[in-house]
Amino acid sequence: MSKNILITGGAGFIGSHVVKLFVKNYPDYQIINLDALTYAGNLENLKEVENSPNYTFVKVDIQDAEKLDEVFRTHQITDVIHLAAESHVDRSISDPLAFVKTNVFGTVNLLNAAKKAWAEKLDEHLFYHVSTDEVYGSLHDGGFFLESTAYDPQSPYSASKAASDHFVRAYANTYKMRTVISNCSNNYGPNHFPEKLIPLCINNIKNMKPLPVYGKGENVRDWLFVKDHARAIDTVFHKGKAGETYNIGGFNEWKNIDIVRLLCQKMDEKLGRPSGTSEKLITFVKDRAGHDLRYAIDATKIQKELGWEPSLQFEEGIEITIDWYLANQDWLDHVTSGAYQDYYASHYSE
Ligand code: NAD
Ligand code: DAU
User: Fold this and answer.
1) In what residue span(s) does the NAD(P)-binding domain sit (predicted)?
2) CATH assignment of the domain containing 155
3) I need a surface site. Which of 101, 151, 274, 344 has the fewest CB within 10 A?
């Protein structure tokens, strides 16, 4: 069946992989990528689909209710996959309000626009909200996050994502909107903005710059290759049950320090440096304020009920990721120089 799907945040890291997957795999769907192009939005991520007949980009901020109404009208939006967000925990510590504005206020604006556009036929449409495992808080004594785990967000970022999840559920309950939510663990892979741990380290190792490890590097994250997350989003969109939540993760826990060492070792091999060269760059720095100790997702529900599984082992995914960054120096140069922000003006007219 033909659909006009609004994907928000499609110029970002995960959103761009979701957009590419949907544009390529579903030629009958029209994909409308809505993104404000903040510092995290990069249209260079989408070069391979930008001329596809079933792809449209609109530069809109989800804080702008009038523009959202216009997009729903003009493109006759049938479904939403909502990824637009402020996503970096460190930035949320220095500027929490920016996270409230986009992640909470922006999400409610989007819910309102969908509710208005879909009016009496709310049951024919789907609002899919993409969220994070951080809403569940921090694990200390073993165990995993289940879909039934109580929310306990600890950072301004996770508090804003938790609030947005609550609003999505409130709209489902109050207005009978068809909604679905997924909560995913840490992603890694191509097009990851180099403020986040893995791409930051790859870039710094390449340039022989210090590798800042917060605290003792003992914090644990559960890593999933970004294209496997995009496949999971495809699965939840098409097979998920409205009103449900699905946890997405790779059963792949790593201490930060072990990841950084693995990157050092692999980069030494690939760059032909003597073993141990890059490890000397590791620098233990002041810990992140309120740093969550451990995240670990139990992804049994999506595996059993919807048949999704990660396709890659971590070591394969890391190889692909490092190789991508080494082969795409232009992408990194444009991001680090800021040149990527000129792409819109030079390729799209207002
Ligand atoms: P990202 O920061 O790379 O991209 C976010 C995108 O949203 C950017 O293109 C940005 O321009 C856009 N955006 C920001 N504010 C906007 C606004 N007000 N209006 C319109 N567009 C706006 O983020 P990401 O890492 O790709 O994460 C995408 C989504 O997935 C987020 O909702 C995040 O919470 C969630 N998530 C991320 C991870 C992860 O490991 N990165 C894991 C689980 C869930
Ligand atoms: O769990 C899902 C979340 O994963 C997403 O919801 C977020 O959007 C995403 O940014 C990510 O959050 P983290 O805070 O876990 O990711 P980050 O890459 O910033 O940090 C990973 C770990 O590495 C974390 O324990 C902090 C640590 N770290 C991070 C940076 C940037 C360092 O030790 N040094 C660093 O320089």
Assistant:
1) 6-320
2) 3.40.50.720
3) 274
**Residue 142's pLDDT band (boundaries 50, 70, 90)?**
confident
pTM assigned to the model: 0.98
- The structure tokens listed for 10 are 């499609």
Residues with a CB atom less than 6 Å from ligand 2 = 87-89, 132-134, 185-186, 196-197, 200, 212-214, 219, 221, 256, 288, 295
When divided into structural domains, the chain yields a total of 1
Q: At what angle do helices 329-337 and 314-327 cross, to 10 degrees?
A: 70
- To test the ligand 2 pocket, which listed residue (132, 187, 221, 292) has its Cβ within 8 A of the most ligand atoms? 221
Residue of 185, 209, 288, 297 best suited for mutating to test ligand 2, as the one with most atoms within 8 Å of CB: 288
pLDDT band at 1 (very low <50, low <70, confident <90, very high): confident
- d(CA 127, CA 132) in angstroms, rounded, equals 16
- End-to-end Cα distance, the chain: 32
In sequence order, what are the residues at sequence separation of 6 or more whose Cβ sits closer than 8 angstroms to the Cβ of residue 134? 89, 153, 154, 155, 157, 158, 161, 292, 295
- 79 is in which domain, residue-wise? 4-191+223-251+293-315
Q: Is residue 140 part of a domain?
A: yes
Tell me: the pLDDT tens digits for 195-208?
999 999 999 999 99
Which residue is closest in CA terms to ligand 1's atom 32? 83
Q: Which ligand is nearest to the CA of 288?
A: 2
In a domain? residue 229: yes
Q: Which atom in ligand 2 lies closest to the alpha carbon of residue 201?
A: 36
- Residue 322: inside a domain: no
Assess whether 133 carries a catalytic annotation. yes
Reading the block at residue 219, the tokens are 């914090």
Pocket of ligand 1 (CB under 6 A): 8-9, 11-15, 35-38, 40-41, 61-63, 83-87, 102, 106, 130, 132, 161, 184, 186-187, 193
